[in-house]
Design goal:
The complex is a heterodimer of chains A (about 250) and B (about 200). With about 250 residues, chain A is of the alpha/beta class. Chain A is built from 9 helices and 6 strands. In chain A, strands 3-2-1-4-5-6 form a 6-stranded parallel sheet, with helices on both faces. In chain A, helix 6 (about 165-175) links the parallel strand 4 and strand 5. Chain B is mainly α and about 200 residues long. Chain B has 2 domains: about 1-90, no CATH class; about 130-200, no CATH class. The two termini of chain B are about 15 Å apart. Classes of the chains: A alpha/beta (about 250), B mainly alpha (about 200). Chains A and B meet through helix 1, helix 3, helix 4, strand 3 and helix 5 of A and helix 2, helix 4 and helix 6 of B.
Chain lengths: ~250, ~200
């Protein structure tokens, strides 16, 4: 086995043990995270949508489940599932738009499960999970009409996007609706920082489940990420120190 | 039964693919290739289902009272024409792609430039803090550093590479580390069945 593959396997196994170990500690872990105001505002936007009977729109991006960036799509599906559970009782069912067919089918499944859990099966429509285009820009162009014409009060633009996300966030801002936006792509994050009212930066996309109280595993995985982050920082500092020493000696 | 079998199959397949990736010389590597090929075939079938979903949504829009009926009609019409052309002539399909889709997407990219300039101007209105000022200031310097100035030497030409290769790269590496850790734990949550994007409680 090559060294990078071995290191990767060790990292995955260590993360797995960390996740399971921390999950077993259960209530001994205190849940305190840094405040991300966007999630508080989003929860309020969900409540408002249920009260005034307006619709929440989830733009899930155009990254396929068989793409290497698929984790962003899965994180957005998780956000969709838990947010839809909270807003399924609204007069207008939440909408999910995708730029990939397999992702659209998964979004339908997530919405159906969310409606079932919320006891609002009759509110679910198969057309609530939609394929809007099969290329990033055709998806963005197709989704614009949803943002403008379907009585949307809050947009969650989260998933695998490129710079085309700017068209969506700009449209959402023009309709003066609440916009929570997150992606894994760095150029797209820069675009969102400039154009969206509530952008999430870096790994905050993957933290949505923990902040939306989607379950203990989400909380635990945030702790495990922090532990690994500190380990990486220490290793980087040790590496830099050793290189410096080698240069001096 | 589905409650039990769907997660069991998903977890087993996920583990096989993961182990096949890390152990390329084992028999698991061959199994991984076969499973990934199946996934590609399933994605192809999903594409067909997705097109039916697209048609259903837009046919409903045409028959309903909402806005944008004309656009939906145009979409259905274009889709059917492309389908018929694609069935009989692949060269004509290439022509459609080069003459319609490519220029339209390029135009959208051009609109993006205008949208971003407008977003930059609007930024200070909805986020009036130091970071927004630094963001705009940096974007301005990088843009000025990229612009060719006639007759005079561009004073920002020297600063731009430093911003891009030192500040932006180090910041991007920090963000990418966070994204990589997030990706890892999202995958693990799915592997242990805590997150189920394939439905079920």
């Amino acid at each position: 086995m090559q060294i990078p593959a071995l290191a990767g396997l060790i990292l995955v196994l260590f993360s797995f043990v960390l996740l399971i170990g921390l999950s077993m500690l259960k209530d001994r872990i205190k849940t305190s995270f840094r405040d991300i105001p966007a999630f508080g505002k989003f929860r309020r936007a969900l409540g408002t949508a249920v009260e005034d009977g307006s619709r929440i729109h989830f733009a899930l991006g155009s990254v396929s489940p068989i793409d290497s960036r698929t984790a962003a799509s899965f994180a957005s599906l998780s956000t969709l599932r838990h947010s839809a559970e909270l807003s399924a009782a609204s007069d207008k069912a939440p909408l999910a738009t995708s730029g990939d067919a397999a992702l659209a089918i998964l979004s339908q499944d997530s919405l159906k499960t969310a409606h079932h859990i919320a006891g609002a099966d009759q509110q679910y429509r198969s057309t609530s999970g939609r394929l809007m285009g099969v290329t990033p820009f055709s998806y963005a162009a197709g989704t614009l009409s949803t943002i403008y014409d379907e009585g949307i009060s809050a947009n969650v633009i989260a998933g695998g996007f490129g710079v085309e996300v700017g068209l969506l966030s700009d449209a959402a801002e023009r309709t003066r609706s609440f916009t929570l936006a997150a992606t894994d792509s760095i150029p797209a994050q820069a675009v969102l920082y400039a154009s969206a009212s509530e952008p999430l930066i870096g790994e905050e996309l993957y933290a949505a489940g923990a902040y939306l109280k989607a379950g203990r595993t989400h909380l635990v995985s945030l702790y495990a990420q922090d532990i690994l982050r500190w380990l990486i920082i220490i290793l980087l500092l040790i590496g830099a120190g050793m290189k410096l020493l080698a240069g001096l000696l | 039964m589905t409650k039990f079998f769907a997660p069991a199959i998903a977890i087993a397949v996920g583990l096989l693919v993961l182990l096949g990736y890390f152990l390329p010389n084992s028999s698991l590597a061959g199994i991984r290739v076969i499973i990934v090929q199946w996934a590609v075939i399933l994605a192809g079938v999903a594409f067909f289902v997705g097109v039916i979903n697209l048609l259903t949504v837009h046919i409903k829009k045409i028959s309903g009272k909402g806005k944008g009926k004309v656009y939906s009609l145009l979409l259905v019409f274009s889709l059917l024409i492309t389908l018929v052309v694609g069935l009989f002539s692949s060269s004509a399909l290439n022509t459609i792609f080069n003459a319609v889709i490519l220029p339209v997407e390029s135009s959208l990219l051009a609109i993006m430039a205008v949208t971003l300039i407008y977003a930059g101007i609007r930024l200070l209105r909805h986020r009036n803090d130091l970071m927004a000022v630094i963001f705009l200031f940096t974007a301005l310097i990088v843009m000025l550093g990229s612009a060719p100035l006639p007759f005079i030497e561009n004073p920002f030409m020297g600063i731009r590479p430093w911003i891009v290769s030192v500040l932006a790269t180090s910041g991007a590496r920090g963000i990418l580390l966070g994204v990589a850790l997030g990706t890892l734990f999202t995958g693990l949550r799915i592997l242990i069945g805590a997150d189920r994007p394939y439905g079920g409680k």
